[in-house]
């Protein structure tokens, strides 16, 4: 067949491992590699200077890509962003200003709720951009501008490579917005783009954590609940980590903003509770460490994903520390997605679930 599992046991494993390559292809489509400047493949039919607000709408994993992008648009372009799941956005009759920007993210380009949200935004007079993996899809056809992800066919029901390719496209769009709005200088742009150019290699490095994660998966497989924590762009990744684990291993998991721990989930923590902390050594690292201390004080089992510097400075005992490569703090979600996906994958393999086709789920949800 056109798409096979190569030497992998599941499509999901193959798709996780393909990421350095397909994220690299996507990067090359959105960046001029010679000058390391953003070079969008299409001309945008609007000026970021006249946009006052961006609405990002999607479902599932794609909505978490949008949530990461919110941090990027707000930081690089000082542009306020609202993120919605499509099933809420479409019925809320959210007021959109004519000429503002609405972004729709979808691997398949066929998700019914996302399509309905797109039609609503168009009717309200918003500019519409679709970040889609299937260029012939309905969402691609009906939106004003299409920014394609070059993930290639994704077969595993749980999205992996489409997610990281969505992030790559959105990072470039956010940098372009920052440039257009005068919030980023040429030098800022060069630095950020350089950070993006490094991502595929760093994702390949991140794949080397696999053996360690496979071992850890045997521990996780014995748990009935897992908590994922993160701050900043690691917060949406914590949500994605929890989603991945529950959809393919059927273990209950929850993602939380690390700073919200004390407002509820801390009550759940005891010696049986694994807590995955996604904490690259970025500007909120210290804050996350203090949340980890709260977890450790209650006997929670910390699984820390951080870099060498973070591992050295985290003065908290963890069950396992997964040491990630050093990198530009802005783009950690693409690289930390790798161990997050591997953990869900290997846990599901230990549990013996149908990894590529989990019960009750569909690859593309074309009905409400
Ligand atoms: C389904 C899939 C998810 C996916 C979501 C959105 O629920 O199981 O993996 O994230 O749909 O799909 P889309 O094609 O719109 O990205």
UniProtKB/TrEMBL annotation:
Ranges where the SIS domain occurs: 44-183, 216-358
EC number assigned by the record: 2.6.1.16
GO MF terms held by the record: carbohydrate derivative binding; glutamine-fructose-6-phosphate transaminase (isomerizing) activity
Catalyzed reactions: D-fructose 6-phosphate + L-glutamine = D-glucosamine 6-phosphate + L-glutamate
Keywords, ordered alphabetically: Aminotransferase, Cytoplasm, Glutamine amidotransferase, Repeat, Transferase
Subcellular location: Cytoplasm
Entry annotation: catalytic residues: 363
Major subcellular location class: cytoplasm
One GO BP: carbohydrate metabolic process
Signal peptide from the UniProt entry: none
GO cellular component, one term: cytosol
Functional description taken from the UniProt entry: Catalyzes the first step in hexosamine metabolism, converting fructose-6P into glucosamine-6P using glutamine as a nitrogen source.
Binding partners and assembly: Homodimer.
Protein's name according to its UniProt entry: Glutamine--fructose-6-phosphate aminotransferase [isomerizing]
Organism: Bradyrhizobium daqingense
Residues shown, of full length: 241 to 608 of 608
